Amino acid sequence: RIFYWIANHVRYLGVDGEKYRPGLEPHDITYTFETRGGVCRDKSALLTAMFRIAGVESDVILISSGSRLNVEAPVLGFNHAITVSYDEKGEPEYIFDPTNENTKDFLPKDEEDNSYLIASKKGDTLRITPVSPPSKNNSTLNIKLKLDEKGFAAGKIEFLFFGFADTVFRGYFARLSPYEVENSISRIINILHPNARLIDFNCTDPHDKEKDLKILANVKIENYVSLTNNMIFIPFDAANLKMHLLYNYIMSPFN
């Protein structure tokens, strides 16, 4: 709850234009708490302090977000500050990034396999953030349609998002109005078939971090199949990879 409170209620912004605390040093945590704003080092310092007050041993860490550093070549290559908590043996247990307002995970998946250094008085060696298994980053598309005698289809389309996909689309939908969410889902449904029409839908509240992101849409599609000479041609929807909403993002390096 402490983590989600800071992530959602302390905005990621430079409250004084970095005039008084440029560089790596955070503002006083009281200032960050009172202004409800700060950059990464401010939010991580506040999270660390509140954890300690709650009895959770923790420290600020510097991370090379998006890359790994060479342990044999010392360099100040850190570009982000987050927080680590410890287990009973004093080893890193959980890593938290309170700057991401939309992630369901403590550490966003795109910050896994990155180099980090614990900022403690006793010093530490360069470490690597843990990597979650592929099964934790799946997104699932389920399509169930029923045909009538005219070749029209009606049914449900279900999108389930986990891990990285959850973070991406949770952040996207959190920025939209209800009207914009409906329009976005309608456009997604049209990828399935140009005649697809959205009847209604349910979408997980993107601000509810207790649940995985899920979209369930009821659709109707006129002239979905071709009826010719007692033969029926049914489109194989699963072959349309663009129905996977991260397809363009995943394939962008190859385009």
UniProtKB/TrEMBL annotation:
Residue ranges occupied by any Transglutaminase-like domain in the UniProt entry: 1-60
InterPro entries, A to Z: Papain-like_cys_pep_sf, Transglutaminase-like
Chain coiled-coil ranges: none
SUPFAM superfamilies: Cysteine proteinases (SSF54001)
Listed name of the protein: Transglutaminase-like domain-containing protein
Species of the source: marine sediment metagenome
